[in-house]
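Quick log. Single chain, no ligands specified.
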Amino acid sequence: MAKDDLYRPDLWSLDPGVLHLNHGSFGACPSQILEKQAELRRQMESNTLGFFEQDLPELLDKAREALGSFLKAPASDLVFVDNATTGVSTVLANLDLSAGDRILVTDHGYNACSNAAHYFASRTGARVDVVNLRFPNSDADEFIDDILGACTPRTRLLLIDHITSPTALIMPLEAIIPVVQQRGIQVLVDGAHAPGMLPLSLAELGADYYTGNCHKWMCAPKGTAFLYVRPEHQSKLHPLTISHGMNRPVGDSTRFRLEFDWIGTRDLTGFLTLPTLIGYLDGVSSHGWGGIMARNRALAVEARDLIGQELGLEPPCPVDMIGSLVTVCLPKAKRTTFTDYHAVDPLKEVLRHSHGIEVSLSAWPSPAGRYLRVSAQLYNALSHYQQLTKALQLELGRGH
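-> predicted structure:
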């Protein structure tokens, strides 16, 4: 299957004057799915009482069933949250921690989720341990050894990304999760980037908790995510907002689902598009979602090779540790010192305003460097990365 067979920018309403190479940050929703959401909103506004009290429970169940089939997880173990950060905070807020307990995170973790770990740990006198994972020159087997070596008798939870945000690495979860759990440590996976990029089987993966975004690589409307919780933990888990679900009659639902389904009046139409979305994109490729994932990954690898070859850069990790998101280490700026992880690299602004190119560009502290992250989605083609490479050669030559 030629990669360009699935070059489909027509599915989106993206600005043609911008080169969109950062799908990983906020995703992009196909026009037809946005129209479906608008239809659902019209249904909601035509009779709000009837929609929320009569239509919504069944619509949510259908959406959960469709998502469960896609993720290979029982629908009864899934609840909807606005984003993966909310999912992480929800689990952390419900942990029964004591003074001296430990939460283990990696230095590749998403900043917002690491902040949450520190916040909820500090409220109980618990501590956060950070394990440093080598980058560049990453090695999956070394990651496993490093994580196990950082576990202590007081470690209660490992918070780990499935695909790291700043460095775009696929973590070897199939090996990490069982050996960590054997030590009595629960595992919370921040899977923000994984749904739609990697084939998932959450029930088989076996994490205690797994949260992921549907609005990134599944291309759902913004604010559409999920939290998977193994059955033995569900009775102890509550949403961040406590509402009617805590004492509403269960009926044919569960307390777990009731609490998360209703946390107050909000627009849930993004979640309700999921059955349509999953079927719609499945039909774009003759190989279904698997074809989309394979095409995007192949393009991302080709983009990484192109950028590396043209700029004389070494790949920072083995090819089997990347999906549709890739990172390369750029040469350090000649005229700009850039070491603050939270600062905006001037080169990012130059690419945006002078070349119309959207990418992710950030610092990495150890060893200090500046890292370019690019995405590959169906609206991207190899020529886009060639254009990016030319812009990089020009601007890096100028000392940016």
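The chain has two domains: 3-30+286-397, 33-281.
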